[in-house]
Structure formats: structure tokens, C-alpha cells
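Our preliminary data section would be incomplete without showing what the modeling component actually yields. Below, a chain of 318 amino acids is followed by its predicted structure, encoded as C-alpha cells that our downstream tools consume directly.
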Amino acid sequence: MNDKPSMADAAEAASVDCGCAPTPAESRAFWKNGSITRRNALGIGVLSAVALSAFGVSSGVSAAYAASYPSWDDVQRAMASESSKAAEVTRIQGLIDGLTQKVAETQAAAEKAGQEFYDAQQAFFDAATKADELQSQADTQAATATEAERKAAQVATQLYRDGGDDTSLELFFAGSAANADDLLSRLGTMDKVYGYTQTVYETAVKARNTAQSLSDQAEVARNERDRLQKLAEQKMLEAQAAADAAQAALDEQTANLATMQAQLAALKDQTATTVAGYQEGVRVAEEERKRREAAEAAAAAAGNNGGGGVEERLLGVV
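Predicted structure:
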């Protein structure tokens, strides 16, 4: 990837050309430090959950998690009879299976969206490089044309100062062989000068035409670059939305799975008459989970303070 241009500069220029979202500040953060790796693309989830609407998953997420989870009172009441207990077991097992499936589906969708973002980003990088290369070639040809035109103008100016091409007339009225030989020599030199001038002029015309053709190609390439930038930024939003959906599913599972598993165990325990012991076990496990997460968050915060800016940490840039 070393042959890629600076993406901070490329994104800045593309934003000026096409005026596409997000804002310049967001674009600079997005393209910071060059291309994002596939691993980072798959892990993106740094924008607001509002981005879910761009992916069309917001309604599905809210609907999926609108389910009513059983309370411990529900479980206690279900233990009153075998039929109600069996029904509650079926209900809880279905909820557990649904949570597990939702986590798997949203994680797969997030991975797919992240891959699409990664591919779109690479296509943008390639288009930006092509546009820059074509413009550089056009500038080189334009400089060649300008230099050739300058040389042709110099020759024309010198000929004008020398009085134009009257050598052939001088040869016709030459009074001696010596004068004729001298004039013939001058005539030969003039022919060479005119030939050189014609060559320089043709070089200038060719270079100017080539420069125009390359400039036209560069303009087309810039338009394609701008289109691909918009696509990459849209894919970024979709990847973030998918990551948000996956995180929401995981959070929902984390918040409810342990409780429902304990409720299920209580219902299947033939010797238990109350849920108090299972309920206390869930409470203790939840406190331990929160303590462990707080310790991990503190360790991560301490590591982040050691280096790297906000954008790098958000994007997962190592």
C-alpha cells in the first residue's frame, strides 16, 4: 500500500470537488493514517446509532428486542403445576434461542458490511491514485508544449529581425560565383532552420493535444474518484450501523441470557420449590461481571493514555 497517496489529502480534495458527506472534519478522521485494514473495517462502530436508518435495520432491531422477558415472579408462579412449568420452560428456551440467533445474524451482517466498506475504500484509493497520475502526465505534456512553443517563437522572432527570407533573391542577382556559393550556404542553413522550426511546432501541437486528452481523462477519473468516495462513505455508515446492531444484540443477550438460564434451571430442578437460591446466584454473577468489566475498562483506558489520538482509538488503528 506504499504507492497510495495520502488519504487525508485525497479525501480533502475529493470533498471539495463533490461536496459529499460526512463533514470535512469527519472525513479527515475517517481517512487518517491511510487505508483502514480489513480487521478495523469489520470492527467499526464509532458513529451514533442514528446511522442504523442508513442500513435499514433500526425497525428490525427494535422489533426483535421488544419481547417481554419472564420475571422471577413468573417463574415462581409457573412452578405451581407441571403444565405451567412446561409452558414456561418452552417459552424461556425459545427466547434464549432467539437471542443466540440474533447475535449470530447481526455479527454476520456486520462482517459483511465491513468487508464491503473495505472493498469500497480500496476502490476509492485506486481511483484517487489514477486521477493524480493522469493529471501529472497532463501537466508534463502541457509543460513540453509550452517549451516547444517558446522555442518556435524565438526562431520566428530571429528570422523577423534578420529581414525575413530574401536569400533566394540575393542568389538570383549574385554577381560572382563566390557570392553565389555563400548565398547557397546561407540558403541551406535557412532550410535547416525552417525544418527545425517546423519540427518544434509539430512537437508543440502534439504535446498540447496530448495534454488536453490527458486532462480530459483526469477529469473523468476525478469524477469516478468522487463517486467512489461517496460510495465508501455510505459503506462506512452501513458498516457502523451493522456494528451497532450486532452490539445491541450482544448487549441484549448479556443482559438477559444469564437470568433466563438460571430461570430455566430452576424450572427443571425437580427438588426446588422456590426460585430464591437461583435468583441470588444470578445477582452474585451479575455483580462479578460488572466488576470484571470495570477492571477491563480501566485497563483499556490506561493503555489508551499511552499514545494514539481519538480517531486512531475509535478506528482501532494499531
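The radius of gyration is 38 Å. The domain at 7-315 is CATH 1.20.1260 (Ferritin). Preliminary results of this kind motivate Aim 1 of the renewal.
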